[in-house]
Amino acid sequence: MRLYHNPRCSKSRQCLALLPDVEVVLYLENPPSEAELTDLVERSIDPLENLIRIDFNGEPEHLVQLLLEDPGLLQRPLLDDGARVMVCRPPERALEWVA
Questions:
Q1: N or C terminus of the chain: which is more exposed, having fewer CB within 10 Å?
Q2: Predicted confidence band at 99 (pLDDT cuts at 50, 70, 90)?
Q3: Do 71 and 27 form a contact (C-beta atoms < 8 A)?
């Protein structure tokens, strides 16, 4: 599993503490490509508006473009198990996939 993590975010740190064996992706240091963002969006089990830190009402392609322009808008923490992507807010939500 991968955790899209921002070490300055308390929720992201809390989620990481719950998942010690997860692969950490520091998405602000190494922003995902357009293809990676498109894949994350397509596999998300959450509504599109939950994947971004601003009010959003639009198409997946628009969301990807906003995130390419400003990776800091990506909601965190984001957990990717290879098949699905979930916003872990609250962080304990991550435990649904590791139980």
A1: C
A2: low
A3: yes
